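User: Hey, quick favor. My workstation is busy. Could you predict this chain's structure for me?
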Amino acid sequence: MKLSRSTLSVALLAALVAPAAHAEVALDVIGDSEVSFEGLLQADYYSYGNDLKNLNVDAPDGSDSDNELRRAELVLKGKGPGNFEWVLGYDAKDDKFLDANVKYKFGNNANHFIQVGQFKQPNSLEELSSTKNNDFVAKGSITNTFGIARRVGVGYYYGDVNWGVNATYFSRELTRNRKHGNGFGLRGTWAPILETGNVLHFGLSHVDYDADLGGTAGTGDTVSFSARPLADISQTLVSTGSITRSDRVATTGVEGLWVHGPFKLQGEYMKTSVKRYGVAPDVDFDGGYISGLWNITGETWGYKAGTPTTPLPDAPEKGLWQLGLRYDTVDLNDGSGNVTTGATTGVLGGEQDAWTLGVNWYWRSNFKFMLNYVKVDSSKWVGGTTRRYVDDNPNITEVRMQFYW
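Assistant: No problem, here it is.
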């Protein structure tokens, strides 16, 4: 669904004149369950400074900009009966189910529970953090490329306020024809320092799943990995294409977080290994990011279940202002190319580095506005008569308007 500039203007006007509300709307008590309603609307606009490739998804129209309704999430939540909690979410924009699960808290302890249904798998600090509080318009390349998001499964969590261990077994996405492949996930976190305005966090995660994505006769199952240039609705610059004869995919991640007053430093590194059938060689890819965020208006972050939480503005009428900077890198190469013959070995999906400078404004309880500038440096092997690595170094200006309740 595309939004015209006039539609975006109307959306912005509606956001500015709408009354402030709480981030959750209580509906009723049904069957001893306290039912509430949440929603998230995001609209994005990108202006591309193209280098070689036109990043517009509708490239034939020759436009150097793009806009889209990014998310339209509707979520019902219930507390009770007893120690049970449940959630049912749907994204009307992407036509898919979000979290859809039931949780049982042992002894009504938020740090000791089991959940069954569809939920985010435990392998990425950024993915597990709330979408409405993303530090930048696009998540890091490794989060979108290697991360396992929501899958149907069963999960067990045990911990305390400053540590936790999470183990899951999962299968496919709930929505038909989405990602699938049985696997398991593990994540452990520890915050040796946990005080108001002073947090130090470390985490380690691992997921392993079956590359059950189908393939043509004789090629076995296939997987593929690609990364957009930190712009969620653009064309990709680096991609492995289909990796045939794939058996298992395993991703290990390490993460760190430091909060000191209004400053937050966060980083992650992931390595993904693809085990393959027969004589096909195994391949490895990796990447990471490090980002810094400053709450100019002085607010600090909270911490819950191994993830940071973003506060409401201290002065709602002025809002919470943030300034952020991120370095992001992903390497989808595991092989080499011969400049003389054009022959290649392994997989040459390309490399991509990017810097993102961002400004965020949280206004009152329900509105957020984001402005990002992204500078990308990418390199990818091109065969045929070219027989060399070709650079493509665009820049992108991104705007997001968000309304949530």
